[in-house]
Amino acid sequence: MPPAAPPPILVGLGALFLVVIAFVSWLGVSSNDFRKEQAPFVQKFVVDLSKRWDVADVRDRMSVSFIEQADTQPARELLNQFKRLGALKSVQDLELRSFMSMNGKRTGIFAFKGIFENGDGAVRVTITQDAKSCVSKASLWTLFIWV
Q1: From the CA atom positions of the chain, what is the Rg in Å?
Q2: What H or E segment, with its residue span, contains residue 116?
Q3: Does 3 reside within a domain?
Q4: How many domains does the chain have?
Q5: Taking Cα atoms as reference points, which of 138, 142, 140, 129 lies closest to residue 37?
Q6: In this predicted structure, what is the pLDDT of residue 49?
Q7: Which CATH number does the domain housing residue 58 bear?
Q8: Residue 6 pLDDT more than 90?
Q9: For the chain, how long is the longest CA-to-CA vector?
Q10: Residues 146, 22: Cα–Cα separation, whole Å
Q11: pTM of the prediction?
């Protein structure tokens, strides 16, 4: 007598499991590629911004939301305070903390320890890349400073 066919529910669960494994694998490869592509952009963006702490130096690489935030008085005061740090001298422990790919856009949050001329700080930068144009834009979400 031939073996009994597995119940349809088990076949369905097996197929679902394979789809989940394939998706997780794709996401892992995609986030790794994003990190390799965007890490130099992140470093250059923060280096260029920290030279004078003037958003005009990096405006072409800023997201629309970052431009809008930077044009407010509190943001100008905050950037003015960051000037005391001086320029970014080195980046340590750069890592991609979060990655999402949706609706033709890839977004990643990078974090690193920044060594500035006059102190150290924890920096978090969000990068959004349009998949069609491959243009990357940055948002400087947080800059924690300790001296």
Answers
A1: 21
A2: strand 105-116
A3: no
A4: 1
A5: 129
A6: 92
A7: 3.10.450
A8: no
A9: 82
A10: 42
A11: 0.76
